[in-house]
């Protein structure tokens, strides 16, 4: 069995049912009524929060068990949510499509990140935003959650390079306390990124 299906195979929501703090803080940056894609969305807490804020949200994850719980959470909160079971190693994100892409603790191997990150840039519509939080390699010493394999842990330098085509509005590596269900608990080393794809008008005016 997929280890994520196993982890999500209990009634309890492993990361809780409340949204991630960084997403909650940055959600107002998403254009109103946007199409939003949440990558590696698991049991759906972030997607359901954004759907309740009036966005049309797709929750993508490789775990069918996690996404079934996401659908249940959406139904319990009375919001619409599209779920898509897919492995990002095979999936191709539609270009020029989303007002926001959300990646919260979606830890992919570095080789896969280098394929998915350019797809994120292409998939954002002009003016669309990327909201991204992940653990960094220093998190391994904290032991308060997240992967133990450093190859799954990006750095701010990597994200600045991969998302150089976007305007970086907030990009920091920092330590913060994370409490999310049974999965994340305590002082943590993270990278946070808020970035916006330039509007076509900005690109054209910079070109003259
Ligand atoms: C730490 S959980 C985070 C879940 C959710 N974003 C949250 O904050 O509650 C990481 C999620 O990434 C998903 N994931 C990992 N690799 C993936 C891949 N290659 N394709 C799709 N989903 C993936 C896992 O199934 C898991 O649900």
Can you give me a brief rundown of this structure?
The chain has helices spanning 3-7, 21-26, 45-52, 64-77, 110-123, 139-142, 156-162, 200-207; strands at residues 35-39, 56-61, 82-85, 98-104, 124-135, 167-180, 184-196. With 208 residues, it is of the alpha/beta class.
Order of helices and strands: HHEHEHEEHEHHEEH
Tell me the name of the CATH homologous superfamily. Vaccinia Virus protein VP39
Strand content: 25-35%
Shape by Cα distribution: globular
List ligands, each type once: S-adenosylmethionine
Report on this model:
The structure is a single chain. The protein is of the alpha/beta class and 208 residues long. The chain is globular. The protein is built from 8 helices and 7 strands. Helices cover 32% and strands 29% of the residues. A 7-stranded mixed beta sheet has the order 3-2-1-4-5-7-6. S-adenosylmethionine (SAM) binds next to helix 3. The site of S-adenosylmethionine (SAM) has 19 residues, from helix 3.
